[in-house]
Design a protein that fits this description.
Length: 467
């Protein structure tokens, strides 16, 4: 026993592969693996010895939501995209049971990148609907690994959502942290364009062209926003297990407003420090860790940024707690800047976000801000200033302030042709925004109560009336 203990202690500084330590070729006892749906992860393995671990996983083909009003028939491991998170330690002997639900239309299998052996287990796990395949392997190398279906056509099975992560902890476990989450990016290819409503079929040609309609975290637009956002408290250390299922796109994973204190590069044993953006290849992973120091919403994105704001690769980590002005002072002043003008000219001041609002208006504003960030900001900009000659301003816009029904109509049905905003002509097209009447009301209320506009409150009933 003493010998075993020293063995454990001496090897825990460095993540050792099983074949470098004969002790790790033995296992003690047997248990069933705890599996979790994203964004949750199972309990840490801690200091437990290597064991025989039974993993039970079920392949399920089912229709789920891809985005508001858009659904898709996903192929899944355990009914979620990504599939269940599997947590093991180096030296475990895994007895993997892959069951294929009797209602499935196709056979499937699993290739785990944590397997040392042919196809990562693909052939040994190949299983028809209504059958169960059992195979075994030993976790030889610590790290964070992707698993995916590898049944032909492989790309199609991955594109439909068949991927997930398996963590192999080093001897002695990873250092404890306060919060751990499971996030996995994937790209999707649908017959309809992004936002086109209804049940959408897989589009093989777009997949071959790598022309994704959706790039998302955890299988759908909004899996990590609104009521699904991740949370942490000021002072806590957060560890994200981030994978990329692909099938095609690599992820420039970034958290807006944070710096990664540590990154387990490519999910392996090398730790990089003080990283802004980490590259996660298709079929790869990374472990990122950071302490949160100030309250606010941190935004998880693929920094190939149109994917974040236009295709869905955006999530929120909401941090609550005390402000810390030493770390972030916020805006302390704003004043006119007017170079080259000798006489004192009136400078249009940008009004700050509404001062004090209470009750349901405050809630509407909060919702409206989220809707604005996700749907309007890319064109009309964070300040509502728009972009000259391309996107008209919403700040102090006469077009907006003169006629609320006209503004509702623009958002509800889209707007094309010549319009005049504050004396400037725009002749462009704003696409119809595929959002609910409630969201149209919230976002317009947010716009009207910001940036010097006339403070109209728009209700869902008003939106409904506009035909
Ligand atoms: Cu499959």
């Amino acid at each position: 026993m003493a010998a075993l203990l020293t063995g454990v202690l001496s090897s825990c500084e460095k993540a050792v592969a099983a074949k470098e330590n004969p002790e790790l070729m033995k296992v003690y006892g047997e248990s069933e693996a705890e599996l979790t749906a994203p964004p949750r992860v199972p309990r840490p393995v801690g200091k437990r010895a290597a064991t025989k671990l039974v993993v039970n996983m079920e392949v399920v083909e089912k229709e789920m939501e891809m985005s508001d009003g858009v659904s898709y028939v996903y192929w899944t491991f355990d009914g979620t995209v990504p599939g269940s998170f599997i947590r093991t330690r180096v030296g475990d002997e895994i007895e993997f049971h892959l069951k294929n639900h009797p209602d499935s239309k196709l056979p499937h299998n699993i290739d785990l990148h944590a397997v040392t052996g042919p196809g990562g287990g693909a052939e040994s796990s190949f299983v028809a609907p209504g059958r169960e395949a059992v195979f075994t392997f030993k976790t030889m190398n610590p790290g964070l690994y992707v698993y995916h279906c590898a049944t032909a056509p492989v790309g199609m099975h991955i594109a439909n959502g068949m991927y997930g992560l398996i963590l192999v902890e080093p001897e002695g476990g990873l250092p404890p942290v306060d919060k751990e989450y499971y996030v996995m990016q994937g790209d999707f290819y649908t017959e309809g364009e992004n936002g086109e409503r209804g049940l959408q079929a897989f589009d093989m040609n777009k997949a071959i062209d790598e022309d994704a309609d959706y790039v998302v975290f955890n299988g759908k637009v909004g899996a990590l926003t609104g009521e699904n956002e991740l949370t942490a408290k000021v002072g806590e250390t957060v560890r994200l297990y981030v994978g990329n299922g692909g099938p095609n796109l690599v992820s420039s994973f970034h958290v807006i407003g944070e710096i990664f204190d540590k990154v387990h590069v490519e999910g392996g044993s090398q730790i990089n420090e003080n990283v802004q953006t980490t590259l996660i290849p298709a079929g790869g992973a990374a472990i990122v860790e950071f302490q949160v120091d100030v309250p606010g919403n941190l935004v998880l994105v693929d920094h190939s940024i149109f994917r974040a704001f236009n295709k869905g690769a955006l999530g929120i980590l909401k941090v609550e707690g005390e402000e810390n002005e030493k770390v972030f002072g916020g805006k302390i002043e704003e004043k006119p800047y007017n170079p080259g003008v000798s006489s004192v000219e009136e400078v249009v001041e940008e009004t700050e976000a509404v001062a004090e609002v209470h009750g349901s208006l405050a809630e509407t504003m909060e919702r409206g801000k989220t809707v604005y960030t996700q749907n309007c900001l890319a064109c009309h900009q964070a300040t509502g200033a728009g972009i000259p000659n391309a996107f008209p301003p919403l700040a102090k816009s006469d077009y907006l302030n003169d006629d609320v029904n006209r503004a509702i109509s623009a958002v509800k049905y889209g707007l094309t042709g010549e319009i005049k905003v504050n004396g400037d002509i725009y002749n462009s097209a704003m696409p119809k925004q595929n959002i609910s009447d409630q969201d149209i009301a919230s976002v317009l209320t947010y716009v009207y109560n910001n940036w010097g506009n006339n403070k109209t409150e728009v209700t869902p009933e008003m939106v409904k009336e506009v035909k």
